[in-house]
Structure formats: structure tokens, C-alpha cells
Amino acid sequence: MNYRKTRLETLEEFIIKRQNRFPGATGEFSQLLRDIGLAAKIIAREVSKAGFNHILGSYGQENVHGESIQKLDKFADAQLISALNRSDITAMVISEENDEAVQMGNPSGKYIVYLDPLDGSSNIDINVSIGSIFSIYMRQSGESELPDVREALQRGTRQVAAGYVLYGSSTTLVYTTGLGVSMFTLDPSIGEFILAEETIEMPDLGHIYSVNEGYYNAWPPGLKQYVKYCQEEVPDDGRPYSARYIGAMVADVHRTLMKGGIFMYPRSEKYPRGKLRLMYECNPLSLVIEQAGGKATDGKRRILDIEPESLHQRTPIFIGSKQNVDRVCSHLQD
Ligand code: AHM
Ligand code: MG
User: Who lines ligand 1 at CB under 6 A?
Assistant: First the structure.
């Protein structure tokens, strides 16, 4: 009998293959990525049962931003932190769900991990896409003491890896270590993430814009102008563009990565510094988008160059295909 050579590559195999490219690698970083993959599978399993496993609805508490905590947010937070605690690699975790940094009790741990355990929590109860976002930094000081929070305040350019897991019509894991962006799909029948695309390159220009238009009146004038530009009837130029807004940044940015276009969350009167969080939403997604050939700015500065001042700081963001981001920036500067 002849067997056709179709080779499925699992996330584990892919991580080890990449690790082998670096002769001195200790394998610790690979272990960290595999631990995140494990937590993602457990969260995906729970998300897929949401509705009958009593995990929907509010936890009856508010998080540090005054938002109602969903049970699934708490579950995802606990799963990710305990997966990262399986080994002594991670020294500190900063999560959207915890005001303070979580010390893992590993003074020898080399890495600091930021998490948005479940982005888009308002989508949980309505069976719309949500996701977990992660961002990984190396400690800068010696490893004899537990890290100081100041060690965690590093620019986005210093991320050694970043990515997300999207719990959508399928569960997708996307990550980068600065060598391009790779995507995996969870095959629930065998419980493995399988390589779907080794290197994602996004279009330079896309025909979709994504922004919460309910806040139109609070937008800066440049953004109003840009959205008007997107809506103009210029068929030769592919306009009007389509509008799409899922309400979970991770899902909106994933669509932008795959199809091109732009996702925007500007500053407003309600959120004078923007709504989205620099360290565990904007930086990791900006690294992914840049690694796929796109761009991300706060309207003036590259997101990855912003010097962080606090763990939970917010920023406006314009992220997506190069040409779309350049155009909105030129309107904002007008
Ligand atoms: P969350 O992490 O608490 O779910 O909040 C962040 C979310 C983003 O995912 C999304 O893009 C944004 O908030 C939506 O905000 P708005 O409802 O103001 O459009
Ligand atoms: Mg979020």
C-alpha cells in the first residue's frame, strides 16, 4: 500500500524546530510557549461549553478598571497563570484581571509575561469571538532577586514574543518571536494545535475599516475626515470600504491581519488617553501586525516605541495595513 506523505506539524514540533535554529538555546523559552498553548486548550474547551457549564455571566465583582468580571475571565486568568507556574521560567505575570503584578516566586525566572486573559469579555455571553493575548519580555537585571515592577516597564520593541489565541468558529493561535508570524488551528479531535500558515504577510492596503462609530461625536476631526474618505464612492480605488466591528480587539485585529484594512480606537472625552491597554493589548498585537508587514501608531508615535509609565496604561491605537495607517495619520495631523 502507498501512503501519501502529508505532514501535519503540531505547535510543539514547530516550536522545537525553531528552537533548534539557535544552537545555545536552553529550551526554557520553548517551554514557556508550550505552557501558554496548554492553557489555551483548556480555555478553548471551557469556551466551547459556555452555556451549560455555569461559567457564563458576571462574577459579581469589578476588575481594577471598574468593569464587571465575567467568570470566564477569572477562569482564563487562573489557567494561564497556573500554566506559567508549572516551571521556574516565568518570574512575574501582569494581567488585566489583577491590579498588582503577580510574583511567581521564581527569582531565577528569566521572563516577565503580560496577559489579557480574555479580551472582548462583553462578547462572552453572546457566543461571539473572544481571545487571550500574551506578551513576553526578558528580565533586564540579574536573576538573584524577585523582579521589581519597574523591570516590567519595557518598550514594546523589547518583546521577545507576543501573540494571541482566538476562540472563534475555530480556535486559532497566532504568535511571533520576531521571525515572522505563524498561525495554528486547534484540532479538537486530537487536542493539538496544527500549523495552518508558517508566515503570514498582510496586504499593504485593505478595504475594511473598524471603529466604534457610536462615539463619532467624540472623535478628533482627523478621524471624522478619514472615515468620510473610507465611505466615499470611488470604485476604482475600492471605496467605499466595508465597516466591521466585533467589539473584541483581538478578533478585529485578527481579521485585519488576514484581510488587511485598519482597526482604530482613538482617544475620546470618556477615554482621554484611549481605552485600550498598552502593555497587554496594543503592544503584543502591534508586534504581530508589524511582523506581518503592517503598522501600528497612536496617531503620532509607533506603538512599540512608547515608553511605558505604568502597568495598566492606556493608549489610542490605529493598527493595520501600512497604507491605511499612513492615511489616517496624515488626516490626524491635519
Ligand atoms: P476587555 O479586555 O475588557 O474585553 O475590553 C477591551 C475591549 C476591546 O477588546 C475592544 O476592542 C473594546 O474593548 C471595545 O470597546 P467599545 O465597546 O468601547 O467599542
Ligand atoms: Mg482586553
Answer: 67, 96, 116, 119-121, 212, 247-249, 275
Q: What pTM, to 2 d.p., does this model score?
A: 0.93
Mean pLDDT of 305-328: 98
What's the whole-number average pLDDT of the chain? 91
pLDDT tens-digit map of 62-79: 556 665 555 889 999 999
How far, in Å, from the CA of 110 to the mean position of ligand 2?
25
d(CA 14, ligand 2 centre) in Å? 28
Tell me which residue has its CA closest to atom 11 in ligand 1.
249
Whether cis (ω within 30° of 0) applies to the bond prior to 240 is yes
| Dist. CA 284 → ligand 1 center (Å) | 16
> Across-strand partners of 12?
none
Instruction: Give first-to-last CA distance, the chain, whole Å.
Output: 69
- Exposed / middle / buried, residue 40 (Cβ in 10 Å: 0-12, 13-18, 19+): buried
Residue 55, pLDDT above cutoff 60 = no
Q: In 10 A of CB 86, how many CB atoms?
A: 14
Rounded (10°) angle between helices 322-333 and 221-231: 130
Q: Which residues pair with 137 in a beta bridge?
A: 112
Beta strand 317-320 pairing with 314-315: unpaired
CATH pick for 11-197 out of 3.40.50.2000, 3.30.540.10, 3.40.50.720, 3.40.50.2300: 3.30.540.10
* Annotated domain spans of the chain: 11-197, 208-333
Q: How far is CA 306 from CA 30, 133, 282, 292, 298, in A?
A: 28, 19, 11, 20, 9
Nearest CA to ligand 1 atom 18: 212
Measured CA to CA, the distance from residue 295 to residue 210 in angstroms comes to 15
Q: Which atom of ligand 1 is nearest to the CA of 67?
A: 3
Write the pLDDT tens digit of every residue in 107-147.
889 999 999 999 998 888 888 999 999 999 999 876 667 88
Ligand nearest to the CA of 128: 1
